[in-house]
Here is the input.
Amino acid sequence: MAQRVNGKLSTGAEGAETIAIDALGFLAGEPERLARFLALSGLGPHNLRQAATTPGFLAAVLDHLAADEPLLVAFAAARGIDPAAVSRARDALSGPLAEQSP
Here is the structure.
């Protein structure tokens, strides 16, 4: 679980990584969720571990959650966090989408 600072969820780099790792665990906890993530990301069981070590992977996990509102809400409820914390964590990992170059 991400750290809480003064009652608020920390979305610094460490807190953001924690949220993303929790999100990956959440996806892996249900075969259908994991299968959809793998299918949409182009990953498979054979290269998931390797991909997890690459820059941007954790942000991509959070992007996947944010793109599916029911999944996002389910994750946030299961972890007891505000769904907006996922977007803040994603931004902390790789910057806001609007600031990225194409």
Summary: Helices lie at 13-28, 31-41, 48-52, 57-66, 69-79, 84-94. Residues 13 and 92 are 6 Å apart (CA to CA). The longest strand covers residues 4-5.
